Amino acid sequence: MYSMAAEVDMEVTDDLARAQKRLRDLKAKISSQSKKNFVLERDVRYLDSRIALLIQNRMAADEQQQVQEHLDDEDDNDVQHLDDKRLTAYGNLFFLLQAEPRHIASLCRLISMAEIDILLQTVMFTLYGNQYESREEHLLLTMFQSVLSAQFETSTEFGSLLRANTPVSRMMTTYTRRGPGQSYLKSVLSERINSLIEHRDLNVEINPLKVYEQMISQIEEDNGSLPEGLPRGVSQEIAAANPDVQGIIRPRTAMLIEIADSFLSTIIDSLDMVPYGIRWICKQIRSLTRRKYPDVMDFSICSLIGGFFFLRFINPAIVTPQAYMLVDGVPAKHPRRTLTLIAKMLQNLANKPSYAKEAYMMTLNPFVESNKARINKFLNELCDVGDFYENLEMDQYLTMSKKDLRINITLNELYVTQDYLLKHIDTLAPSDNAHLRLCLAELGPAPPQVPRKENRAVDLALFSRWETPVQDIATQLMSDSNVTKNDILFQETKSIFVQLIRSIPHLADRRPINLASLADKAATAKDGQLVRKGIKVKEMLRELEELKVLDSKDNYRIMQEEVSAELVHLGNMKEKVVAESASLDAVYKTIGDHNNYLRSQLEQYKSYLQNVRATSAKDKGTTPVGVTAVGGKDKRAPKTQALGPYRFTHAQFEKEGIILDSNVPDNRRANIYFNIASPSPGTFLIGLHYKGRDKAILEMDLGLDDLLEKQRENNHFLDLEYVQLDVTKVLALLNKMFVKRR
User: Fold this and answer.
1) Phi and psi, residue 260, nearest 5°
2) Which residues form a coiled coil (predicted)?
């Protein structure tokens, strides 16, 4: 414990301390940004469903206003609306929730799917929001153990375990999106996926129907007519029986297996890089399964572990790498399909494969058969991690002694958590004297949620009304672990000597280190902190000698050796801290990029909503809901002015990543340009032009709702016959060029 304290001593300002401070700051930024991204992802999910109703013209004006309010920007001013007494009461409540995870674990099982997201935000990114702090991480994992145990207890059949979309499964998925999980995905999968998507034209489609359709389209394009005896619209069976289709699929199958093998090897070789928490959850799944179903075969247990590790962690990043910022932009059509097939193969490998819906995947069964033992070994090794209970006990002691626990939490997080707890208090705390019930009684009824703009953050200090004195905890620790008072005195003395050497390193230039001289020089230094430490450590040396733990005649040899070893450890630690910082710099950039991506999606929703409301008001001759006309009277909106056209070259669109695929020959691209205009809100005209020609080669009318519908359905391509454009980037361009100008 005292060794840990020496490593992070705030009073020391050497190179290690500066590197550690930078690492701590970086981890805090990642934790904070992860929370912001989670909130944005939740907003995007909500707006996905609401925008769908708008597109279908099924939303009333008051509902449109409600959605608009959901999009209003938050006020970043951290003014607190709570008096000191209420802040103290909330501090007591959230200390109890953090320190005793069983309450949140029980609550997660009681609330509905509609309620889970905001609770997960509070739990994963606020209550246990410091994703790199061992105490919070271990408490969060303790909560997971309780949730999983209850899930196994209530399960009626093995086949349904952890597979349904429940609050528990949502919790597990959300956990993987925290900083350590994102760091792992970036370091392990990014290079492999980027290497694959460089081959834009590599087509490994093995669905016979799709292969057949692509084949006859290619023949038609080459010969100018549809080939005889190869009609369109055939069944899956007829396509699969075609010898030419079989000839195309055979080498593609071999190539797919080779690519999937390379992905699998990369994942298996990364075993030691998998975050501890994810491995520990895998361990709990295995342990709980063995206890609940002692007769279940090992491969069935591995299937459950694989369901979590691959289905909820690895595969989503493979299928949509752009959403995890593993690649720049949306992969082209063929690589995207290849990634989907690889994810299916990995899932079939980790689970018992079923080919009922996709019979063509049976051709890849050799990959499953040849790697089954290999993947089961990996999944079992994932579970081979130690427990943290002893470390958690020490963490709790350190926390009680520091007394500086704080969380940054919004008003609505406070109010919603309080409301959920009150709804289920009889189940959570049936006893009248239960601490949870007493904390909630002191707070009274939960206030209603505040509007988004007023949802300010509170810096909440956490402490317990029923706090055990630190001395009592130390006594308990000593009795539990056979740690003596002499042991603690020895470790504290060593810690102070390490701090002194880090503060005045030239005193340790001569070896062996003269500890008595070091203490004397510190005690007579000009710096007040050094003087205090020097005097204290001299007294501690004297006490240790009286206790016959050390001997001044051999220059305190045992302490000399331990201090020297600690300095070597700290030197190695600096290298590790610098390396970890470099790795987390990349993670922080990735999370920031993802934040920008999510914000751009919200901007597109804002633009669409504004257009819908403006158009609706124009049709009815009224001012949009929530907008006051000049003089307080509704006036017919003036005729909207057409905007554009604006001109963009083929090279511009390529540089911005707007063009995903182009069939325009390289020697003609310099003569190609695009004209984009907006005749009215929400409508656009894109023209593809060739220099020197008056008329466009191709023109397309676009509606903003059509583009948003494509985005909702994960259809990333806008086909202009000669070029294919990225829907998301087209939306961003239209928003920038037209919507904001209106």
Assistant:
1) -60, -35
2) 9-36
In angstroms, rounded to a whole number, what is the distance separating the alpha carbons of residues 353 and 372?
11
- Determine the Cα angle at 280 with ends 276 and 283, to 5°: 145
Edge-first strand order for the sheet with 683-690 is 643-649, 672-680, 683-690, 698-703
The answer to whether 108 and 150 have CB atoms below 8 angstroms apart is: no
- Beta-bridge partner residues of 410: 457
Rounded distance between C-alpha atoms, residue 205 and residue 729, angstroms: 27
Q: Which 3-state string (H, E, C) describes 389-423? A: HHHHHHHHHHHHHHCCCEEEEEHHHHHHHHHHHHH
Tokens of 327: 């690649």
- The two tokens of residue 430 are 């049936």
**Residue 682 backbone class (left: φ over 0; alpha: ψ -120 to 50; beta: rest):** left
Which three-class secondary structure state does DSSP give residue 500?
A: helix
- Statement to judge: residues 498 and 541 lie in one domain: yes
Residue 1 CB contacts under 8 Å (≥ 6 apart), including other chains: 394, 397, 398, 491
Q: What is the pLDDT of residues 164-197, one digit of tens each?
A: 667 778 888 888 888 788 889 988 999 999 999 9
Residue 681 belongs to some domain of the structure: yes
- Domain contains 159: no
> Given CA atoms 618, 619, 623, 629 in this order, what sign does their dihedral have?
positive
Q: Which amino acid is at 494?
A: K
Model pLDDT for residues 523-553, shown as the tens digit of each residue = 888 888 888 888 988 898 888 888 888 888 8
Token code pair at residue 332: 């082209």
Alpha-carbon distance of 129 to 98, in angstroms, equals 11
> What is the pLDDT confidence band of residue 131, given thresholds at 50, 70 and 90?
low
Chain-centroid distance of CA 300 in Å reads: 28
Say yes or no: 225 and 361 in one domain.
yes
Q: Can you say whether the dihedral through the CA atoms of 156, 162, 163, 168 is positive or negative?
A: positive
Domain housing 497: 482-555
Q: What is the DSSP letter of 507?
A: G
| Shared-domain flag, residues 595 and 486 | no
Judge if 248 and 354 occupy the same domain: yes
| Pair 230, 370 in one domain | yes
* Structure tokens belonging to residue 77: 């001013």
Same domain, 736 and 658: yes
**Other C-beta atoms lying within 10 Å of the C-beta of residue 46:** 14
- Rounded to whole angstroms, the Cα distance separating 67 from 318 reads 32
User: What total of structural domains would you count in the chain?
Assistant: 4
Element containing residue 152 per DSSP (H, E): helix 134-154
Strand, helix or coil for residue 717: strand
Phi, then psi, of 69 in degrees rounded to 5 = -65, -35
Q: Using the predicted structure, report yes or no on whether residue 163 has a pLDDT greater than 70.
A: no
Phi-psi region of 275 (alpha: psi -120 to 50; beta: other; left: phi over 0): beta
**Residue at 688 is within a domain:** yes
For residues 352 and 255, membership in a common domain is answered with yes
Which of 318, 321, 341, 337 is closest to 329 using CA atoms? 321
Specify if 229 maps to a domain. Answer: yes
Say how far apart CA 675 and CA 646 lie, in whole Å: 5
Q: Distance between CA 288 and CA 301 in Å, rounded?
A: 10
| % of the chain with per-residue pLDDT over 70 | 78
